[in-house]
Amino acid sequence: MKASITTNAKFQIAPIDDRIYGSFLEHLGRAIYEGIYEPGHPSSNEQGFRTDVLDIIRDLQVPVIRYPGGNYVSAFKWEDSVGPRELRPKRLDLAWRTIETNQFGIAEFHDWCQQANTAYMMAINLGSRGIEDARNLLEYCNDNSGAAWGDLRKQHGYPEPFNIRMWCLGNEMDGPWQVGHKTAYEYGRLANETAKTYLKFDEDLELIVCGSSNDKMATYPEWEAEVLDQSYESVDYISLHKYWNNYPKDTLSYLASHYELDEYISTVRSVIRYIKAKKRAKNDVYICFDEWNPWYHTNKRDHELLKAWNWPEAPHLFEDPYNLEDALLVGTVINSFIRNADIVKIACMAQLVNVIAPISTEKGGAVWKQTIFYPYYLASKYGRGTALQAQVASPTYDCTIRDQASYLDTSVVLNEELQEISVFCVNKHPDQALHAEISLENFSELSGLEHICLTGPDRYLTNTAQQPDRVVPQLLEPPKVNQTQSTVSLPLLSFNVLRYRYQG
């Protein structure tokens, strides 16, 4: 089967914000405890941080990580998680029906972020708490004036402010499952007043207001319009969340899910433009897609378990074993973020370790990379620069998502500093390779560098602690180039990175 991709050095969409390769860690299951923090593990340092996990995360170059939730944050009492560990109380976590020991908290995450070479995005509780507690948290983290909350941080052993720049104003406040669920008007007013309070402290903070928990919510997209109507001029981003599943085992429909994502982004882009025009506002608001991932392998079973259990500590929860087709889905999601680089500026894969995560660990034992790690890693490594428009012609198919879905999904990134072009391609075809003709116009002295391919003999193949390398990227023959034309074969059910170099 034949396909074609045409791009041009001058057809630039926008610079890609590196933070689209961000992630998320919540006090949920084993994401924190036994994930990134496990005192006594053979690899753990003096602070209890697993260095084997840290090594992978540093290599992944995660630019920002959202913390501490998620649903967890809507009943979070931040004061419990600071100060001497022996004085920290255990609390019931109402979101996930577990015990939170608070042995890992705000300061520990600050230290961990520094070792992981990443930035801290703090989510605040606007569910069970409000402006006063949010203000106190900000001052504890960032103040150095000699006032009470900053001085308390100093007493806890941190003389320098944490200087957290990104703040999420609550989490999924449109969700009836959320502690402190609110209407769009109630939440929009609260978020706006909280944002104004934060900006009085530091006008350069980046503030993120809650959009829809997903595009299937009954309130979507009116929620976005009302919340932004209340808060537009006080915030920088509106957050969106989306998870995918393949319960029917319908591979072609699953891999066409990016069309729904593109529509989701397009709709919210239009809402932002409408509210900006309505308010005659000068500032721009962008999208922060701060939760996204496949989530279905353990979802139904574990939601039943957590209803029945008696408040365990750090249980195994939502530890999805991801397969090859999940990795291809992740590739299409990242392609969508790149193609929408002018409006999507931050994105956080949920989550980073153990809980619906690209990285898995055993207590006291191994760490390994799940299949979904690899498109995330390759995009983070080679997807930095400027997004280019691409014209794609490909055979199509009909599915439950839409008719005439393309077998080929693509994004293109120009790195002018390195004089490199990366073309990310997902071949969704379950039976045939795609032979692609790629036109790279307005580039001189092109040469093919690499063809990195993630595929496998079975779409349901997973990586495990015992067999961690069953689905890993392979180096294929570099793409052939003749002046501005390149030819390449994309194996069936594969994620591909085609790398090129140019001169001048």
Strand order, largest beta sheet: 21-20-24-18-17-14-1-19-23-22
The largest pleated sheet is described as:
10 strands, mixed
The CATH topology of the largest domain, please? TIM Barrel
Average pLDDT value? 97
Q: What structural class is derived from the secondary structure elements?
A: alpha/beta
Describe this entry's structure for a reader.
The chain is of the alpha/beta class. It folds into two domains: 127 residues, Golgi alpha-mannosidase II (Immunoglobulin-like); 366 residues, Glycosidases (TIM Barrel), CATH 3.20.20. It is 26% helix and 28% strand. A ten-stranded mixed beta sheet has the order 21-20-24-18-17-14-1-19-23-22. Strands 2-3-6-7-8-9-10-11 form an eight-stranded parallel beta barrel, surrounded by five helices. A two-stranded antiparallel sheet has the order 4-5. 51% of the residues are buried. The mean pLDDT is 97.
Topology (elements, then pairings):
Elements: E1 2-15, E2 22-24, H1 51-60, E3 64-67, E4 91-93, E5 98-100, H2 106-116, E6 119-124, H3 131-142, H4 148-155, E7 166-169, H5 184-201, E8 206-210, H6 222-231, E9 237-244, H7 251-254, H8 258-279, E10 286-294, H9 299-308, H10 324-339, E11 344-350, E12 359-361, E13 367-369, H11 373-382, E14 386-393, E15 396-397, E16 405-406, E17 408-415, E18 420-427, E19 434-441, E20 444-454, E21 474-476, E22 480-482, E23 485-490, E24 494-503
Helix pairs in contact: 3-4, 3-5, 5-6, 6-8, 10-11
